[in-house]
Description:
Layout: H1 2-5, E1 11-14, E2 22-25, H2 36-54, H3 78-90, H4 93-96, H5 101-109, H6 121-131, H7 137-146, H8 149-159, H9 163-166, H10 169-180, H11 184-202, H12 212-227, H13 236-247, H14 262-266, H15 278-295
Antiparallel strand pairs: 1-2
Helix pairs in contact: 8-10, 8-15, 10-11, 11-12, 11-15, 12-13
Amino acid sequence: MYESTFPALLCHVNQTCFFPASIIFHPIRPINPNDPSDVAHHDRMVALVTQMLGWHRGMFFDLLPIDPKTTISQPTDLSVLFGACHAFLTFPEIYQYQTYPELKNKLYNAGWFPFIQILGKPFNEIFNVIKNDLPLTDIEKLIVSSFDETKITLMYNIWVSNQLFKKRELFLKKGIEEYLEKDCISAIHVLYPCIEGILQDLSYDIETQGDAGERLTTKLISFLKSKNPETRLLLPDNFKEYLIDSYFMKFNRKSEEIDLSRHSLAHGAAINEEDYNPVKTLQAILILDQLSSYMDA
Length: 297
């Protein structure tokens, strides 16, 4: 029984690391039922698997042939495979929301995306509120309050370790300070151009046709995939959609109500005072943080 319980326990996924998951390979050896140490190890493993089932985790058994001459294709990168499985089991909501196009559009129109910083309960609650056509006010207040000075400062310190952010350190710091001081008008006017500036730095040599949003986001995705072809955990294509539909959202001058976007802000058309609020400012901060994560992918 001991020998056959876990014949193909290939790896341990480090749950503290999401991008990417850490894979540690362990040698396989028989367990001696007469050795108290082996029995203790076995009992701990059984307890671990029981706990994993409670976490909705799983175990991977590779039963494919190991003959290199086989014509059956095998995974080329187990770290990517396990990372994808781990992500799906840990954050199923980021995959589920993609199956509801109408709800995804509502999510983007409200300025939300499965940002890395809100994965788990916060994003799940946002999605459920939108799914049930309820007001976002209460959950948005809770999310904003969770991003205190300590948390945002930690995020900022990670940003400026990257050169694209470091060169904008003065402006990013000012935008963060204004946000913490609850001056959202000033914060948004500083942070929104920083987002486009970082995208511009990635796009200086691009020849893609289209408007600014299409060109800049296309370069972002191209950059990300050139660094790591297996980028599905970061939802790059979805993030491109989000940026175009929300941050780069176009506006109509003849419309009575013009929503806040990079375009309406730059052209002086975003004059609705209510749009300059902590939620919109935090969303700009989360966009910057997402870009920072992409730079380090």
